[in-house]
Write a structure and sequence with these properties.
heterodimer, A: mainly alpha, two-stranded antiparallel sheet, 37% helix, B: alpha/beta, Amidase signature (AS) enzymes, 11-stranded mixed β-sheet, 14 helices, globular
Chain lengths: 98, 478
């Protein structure tokens, strides 16, 4: 059973907040989605079908296994363009340990 | 000049009637002129990139969807959470176009993070349809379609996860091509749903699409899912004989039980189109497919795409990059950043995606969606043993007015409104070309073919385009 509390819990795990009205819309969407999926669940022998995760078998050659090679593609100065704050050659990030 | 075909621009460039700077300046001026009215671009380039090359695309201006990474150039995904993000590397598709000498005019607006089909959810505002400003252009490659329909550029690059190139192309009266999955590298494309995402092209003719595809396709070591090179020049095969090529249309997709007048005209346009196709040698059959199976396309897509999107976008926290909102600790920072950074639609999709992936729901929701995906793809693969492709109207309606439709995930069971997703489920090449007008708005038909036979889909579309008479149309002729 899905209710606002469940959705609120999911939103919190996804690290965002939602407004009350947004949950109402979401509950309606879940109602439709779950009914549709119930219909899929009733397809005969659906559980015996091998799930498809990619459109077709990938054609991987041996080259995807390779030796590690040093490749410093991003230099410090070009990286700084997205950095809010830095000191010397060190990027300042939010404190992550209390 | 920028409303011409690539061949015509090439001639003018080669005989030195114009320079690439002239073309860039004209495209840039048009982009700026139409920006307030239509909002095609997030960024319009100040100056022309200088590349020395000698290809069909040298000096030709183009637009690039703003979810494709461009080193040193703002790339926002049309989302507040990335509103100041400047990539530190180039996407492969952009690098290839740059090396070929194509000239970037601007980064085009999309539905936020490519999730949506309306062109109304980008952080810089709505994109309007060049044929009627009160209507949507559709999405998510909204600005890519409008920039081509307005005649600003001869082609734009888009991405397509469910119909995001083909639908806006159809609403905008232009051509949209989603290649086979993996034909064009996804390196540098912001991932939405990785098993469905495809980089493709919007242009004003199939031939122009083939010129661009010849440059951007090919294996890329940086994308493990990219296909081996097919070593076929699509532009050389665009005029091959198509007599005897077999297409089918799906009987159940053309039902109009409600008697909707607009749908009636769209279906009428389709039947007239396939009459012309038969006249030039196509064999076209009606095929019946289990309606219950066709009705699972949208819910399965909804579950799979939301699940993959939730996972793919978990890196948008504001910690390593993105528009960080300060807070008292790391959790507070992420919570504030993601709350303010994502719109309501995106959050709803993430919640659905997260729910279907939870351990207790995964089998009956996510895995069942993946199972039904296989059933659908198996059915089409079976049909593709006999047929070279299927043909249907691209959309079930003309471009909606802004007050007519929302982008909420509804229980819309219209098969015709969702069949383009089949192309993404099976990784099939799929194209929409303009086929006429209904209520003064453009409509299109789509051809979807066998995986890895991109050249054949382009070939068949080009032959049909020749007899339909809507090739090269722009909404604003100057």
């Amino acid at each position: 059973m899905i209710d606002k509390n469940k959705l609120n819990d999911l939103a919190n795990r996804l690290m965002f907040k939602m407004e009350d009205g947004e949950y109402d819309t979401l509950l309606r969407e879940f109602d439709i989605t779950l009914k549709q999926m119930e219909f899929i669940g009733n397809i005969k022998d659906i559980e015996k079908v091998n799930p498809m995760f990619y459109p077709f078998d990938l054609e991987l050659d041996d080259s995807y296994l390779r030796e590690d090679t040093f490749n410093n593609e991003i230099d410090f100065n070009s990286m700084l363009i997205n950095v809010k704050d830095y000191e010397g050659s060190k990027v300042k990030v939010p404190k992550v340990v209390e | 000049m920028t409303e011409l075909f690539i061949d015509d621009m090439r001639k003018e460039l080669d005989n030195k009637s114009v320079t690439s700077s002239d073309l860039f300046n004209e495209a840039r001026d048009k982009a700026l002129k139409y920006q307030d009215e239509y909002n095609s671009f997030v960024t319009i380039m100040d100056k022309k990139e200088e590349m020395d090359s000698n290809t069909k695309l040298s000096g030709i201006p183009y637009g690039l969807k703003d979810n494709i990474s461009t080193k040193g150039i703002l790339t926002t995904g049309s989302s507040n959470i990335l509103k100041d993000y400047i990539p530190v590397y180039d996407a492969t598709v952009y690098r290839k176009l740059k090396e070929a000498g194509a000239v970037l005019v601007g980064k085009t607006v999309l539905d936020e993070l490519a999730m949506g089909g309306t062109g109304t959810t980008g952080h810089t505002g709505i994109v309007r349809n060049p044929w009627d400003k009160d209507r949507m252009i559709g999405g998510s490659s909204s600005g890519s379609a409008s920039s081509v329909a307005l005649g600003i550029v001869p082609f734009s690059i888009g991405s397509d996860t469910g119909d995001s190139i083909r639908k806006p192309a159809s609403y905008g009266g232009v051509v949209g091509f989603k290649p086979t999955y993996g034909r064009v590298s996804r390196y540098g494309l912001f991932a939405f749903a990785s098993s469905l995402d495809t980089v493709g092209v919007i242009a004003r003719s199939t031939r122009d699409i083939s010129y661009v595809m010849d440059i951007i396709k090919g294996h890329d070591d940086r994308d493990m899912t990219s296909l081996p090179d097919d070593n076929i020049l699509y532009s050389d095969n665009i005029n091959n004989e198509i007599k005897g090529k077999k297409l089918f249309y799906i009987k159940e997709a053309l039902e109009n039980k409600s008697g909707n007048k607009e749908l009636e005209q769209i279906i009428d346009n389709f039947y007239k189109t396939i009459d012309k196709a038969r006249e030039i040698g196509f064999i076209i059959d009606e095929v019946s497919i289990d309606k219950e199976l066709l009705e699972t396309i949208y819910p399965a897509y909804n579950v799979i795409s939301c699940a993959e999107a939730t996972s793919n976008n978990s890196n948008l926290t504001g910690i390593c990059f993105g528009n960080r909102i300060d807070g008292k600790d790391i959790n507070d920072i992420m919570m504030k950043t993601r709350t303010e950074g994502f719109s309501e639609l995106i959050k709803r999709r993430f919640v659905i995606g997260s729910y279907v992936l939870q351990k207790e729901n995964q089998d009956k929701l996510f895995l069942n969606a993946c199972r039904v995906r296989r059933l659908i793809v198996d059915r089409f693969n079976e049909l593709f043993k006999e047929y070279d492709g299927y043909i249907l109207p691209s959309t079930e309606r003309i471009a909606p007015r802004f007050n007519e439709a929302s982008d909420k995930l509804g229980d819309d069971y219209l098969i015709l409104g969702n069949h383009l997703i089949i192309g993404n489920f099976g990784g099939y090449p799929s194209i929409s070309i303009p086929s006429g007008f209904v209520n003064n708005m453009p409509v299109g038909i789509s051809i979807t073919g066998r995986a890895k036979e991109d050249y054949l889909v382009l070939n068949m579309a080009n032959k049909l385009e020749e007899v339909l008479g809507y090739k090269g149309q722009v909404s604003k002729s100057e």
